[in-house]
Structure formats: C-alpha cells, structure tokens
Amino acid sequence: MNEGWLDVGDGQRIHYEVSGNSQGKPAVVFHGGPGSGLNPRWREDFDPEHWLLVLWDQRGCGQSTPHAGDPATSLEHNTTQHLIDDAEKLREHLGIEKWLIAGASWGSTLMLAYAVQHPHRVSEMIISAVTTSRPEEHAWLTRGARLFFPDHFAELQRGVPEEDRDGNLAVAYHRLLNSPDPETRAKAAHDWNKWDLTLMSGGDNDFTGTRYEDPRTSYTLARIVTHYWGNEAFLEANHILDNLDRLTGIPGVLIHGRRDFGGPPENAWAVAQRWPDAELVFVSDAGHQATSSTDSALQAAIEKFRQGATGPGR
Question: Where in the cell is it found (predicted)?
Fold first, then answer.
C-alpha cells in the first residue's frame, strides 16, 4: 500500500492511500460522516489482485490537514464543492482516466454530486445507505426521526438553549461546538453524537466500543456534520435528483436497508426512479449500519463490475 498527501489549495492537504494491483481496474471510495475519515475495511471488499483501490480522507478529518478536531481550524473552505474538486484533483494526480466510485451514507451524497459534475470520469457506481442531502432529509435527521426515538430526541433538544430548541438544531449545536469554552464544546459533541448514534444504530446510543469514545474523533464528527447539515450540505434543494439524467449510461447498484433511520428507504427509491441504469437492492434485515446481508449485496455488486472490467483506466 502507498500513501501520500496532496495539496489541494486553501492551505489544505488531503491524505490518500492506494492499494492493490497497479494495473488493475481503478476504484475510489467516498467515506461517510461527513468527517469520519477513510475506512480501511473497504480493502477487504476489493480483491487486490483485480482492483487498484483509492481511499482518501476528506478535508478536516482522518490524516488530512488542517484537522477540524482543532477548534481553531476554520471550516470556511470545507464545502461539498471543495470536496468534489479535491476528488478530481486526486484522480488527476494519480493519473487515472476513469474510476468506479463507491461510498455509503454521506459518501453517497458526495459521490453522486461528483458524478453529475464529472460523469465522463465515472465507469460504474456502488452506493450503500443512499442519501442525497435534500432539505427534507436533514429535517428528518434533526427532527422527524423523533417519531421513533422521542426520549433520545428530548435529550438532544435539552442540549441547546431553550430559545433554540424549536429551530435548526444542527445550527444550534454547531454554535456550541465552536464555543471558546472547552467544556461547552465537549458536552455539545457528546449530546449531538448520542443522537447521531441513535439514528445510525436504530436506537442504541451507548458509546462503548464505538468511535465516539475518542474525544477528538467525537468532536471532529460533530463539528463537521453540523457544519454540513446546518448548511443543507451546500447544495441547492434537489440538486442531485434534478441532475441524475447526467448519469445516463453509467451502471450503478443502490443498496439500502429497509430499517434505516439515518436515511429512510425513500432516498434510494427516489434516486432509482430517475436513474434507469441503476439496480436497487433493498436489504430487509439492515438499518443504516451494514449487516452480513448488506456485505453480500456489496460484494455481489463489486464482482459484477469486476467481471465487466475493460482494463486499467489509466
């Protein structure tokens, strides 16, 4: 495996890792979060004998610099368009002409936004836990899901000043996460991530054994997520759905859990209705987090596109 850092401007360097067959079919993974950093587990899914796999840390997280875990780090130059441009600069830097793009959760929003902007650089797409970051999706994440988790939502509301409880909670929490007081920042990260984990797990918000146990990771995630959700992911409403016609001719597989509270199945359905070249796979026993059934569907999609490989896109 090779790794490096790419200067993408604005004082930002993104970290990336390249593994597998240097002459294999290129694939890149857009990680979730936003702010979670690359997940090395993807290397288990892409056979290194056949694939050239690229993993990268988006701005402000993982090993990219400057890190959003430092409250002094500005997020001014951390938007969806910046991340799209970073991915394209990384492709050019690695000398890849076309690549299969894969991702889950927030990664699906980012990869779809990338693909509708650069469709000629995409060979195929594999998307799990589909999101498009429409305003109604953010409204569900910050308020609508209270229908299933009223107790956890009450705790989320209590974490912000009373005058903010009926407003945009992502904005209110982001304000607290940028407080000059470290205790205020730590409590806001804890309270926000309790809700985030509730949605991801379908109701269990125990931090034990999760990434949220690490204070820096917890703070980074909360700060970047609220930055994006509070700004509607820096996308026009319905931007992705309204531009899916640009993906005509690009084959894709959409994989979505029927029990997903972090991104209801309607998200995947809406994308599939406007992208005829995509196959939609609903996984009955999965939520936002993957199960063995999700993994099987993912591996089937990777194998499908491996068999259709036409050689290295370099």
Answer: Cytoplasm
